[in-house]
């Protein structure tokens, strides 16, 4: 019943002007900052590890702003799941090589790091690109929320998503059939199929899949970055130029290069990155926990 009530509130909330949603979302984020002691500690620790050159008070201000953007990303999920395509197109401002995937004859991987507008990028790919998309998602333990998430992300009819705990075969079939792969490359899923690669100078368990898949399936990799704009201005989605130097025959070097690119994007908008995730949870053998 609780999950259905929350979904009902999200549906009602999405009718409000985005400027109102943004203000309420930032208020929610400020409340989460006060109540979410564990996630607050994780965010501050990540910022300490990744941006040690900043004064402690500046890192704390960044973390506070991050929580306000996190609050927005939670409440504005209803907008992405329920608003009309026409309204979303008015709010989602796309830039760069948006049409690349439709012009390109071969396989395509959209590489999208975990910024707060990640779900907006997923909507933009479906709204502005004719090529179907495929991605992996984390199945929710609550079946009602899981069904709502799947429905919201698939409602435009040109995408497929596959649970992370499922076999990769359906995903591979979709890619071989022409779907672009929406790949989220920057979370800690343990040592399996990963290598410890520097992320802001700290060894971070990072999946080698972007390099290995791109090489195995002859995929062209196009980075895409999302940004939440202030107030009711909407979102900016940048489709960057495809990489002509990725992949190589060295997946570890490729992954290190990918992390350096993500670092560069984070430095442009540091509060927008997902700092509440334990990015350095998995440690090399013998190293103590960083949290």
What attributes characterize this protein structure?
291 residues, alpha/beta, 7-stranded mixed β-sheet, two-stranded antiparallel sheet, 12 helices
Fold and architecture overview:
With 291 residues, this protein is α/β, with parallel strands linked by helices. It has a domain at 85-272. Helix content is 47%, strand content 18%. The protein has 12 helices and 9 strands. The chain has helices at residues 2-13, 18-35, 37-50, 56-75, 77-82, 85-91, 100-103, 118-128, 143-154, 169-176, 209-216, 251-268, and strands at 92-96, 107-111, 133-137, 159-163, 180-183, 194-199, 202-207, 219-228, 235-239. The strands form 2 sheets. Strands 1-9-8-2-5-3-4 form a 7-stranded mixed beta sheet, with helices on both faces. The chain has a two-stranded antiparallel ribbon with strand order 6-7. α9 (143-154) links the parallel β3 (133-137) and β4. α3 crosses α4 (56-75) and α11 crosses α12 (251-268). The model has no long low-confidence stretch (mean pLDDT 95).
Number of helices: 12
Distance between the termini: 35 Å
Main β sheet profile:
7 strands, mixed
The percent range for helix content is 40-55%
Structure classification: alpha/beta
Mean pLDDT: 95
Rough shape? globular
Number of strands: 9
Percent strand: 15-25%
SSE pattern? HHHHHHEHEHEHEHEEEHEEH
Spatial strand order of the main sheet: 1-9-8-2-5-3-4
**Alpha-carbon Rg, integer:** 19 Å
Q: Stretches where pLDDT falls below 50 for ≥5 residues?
A: none
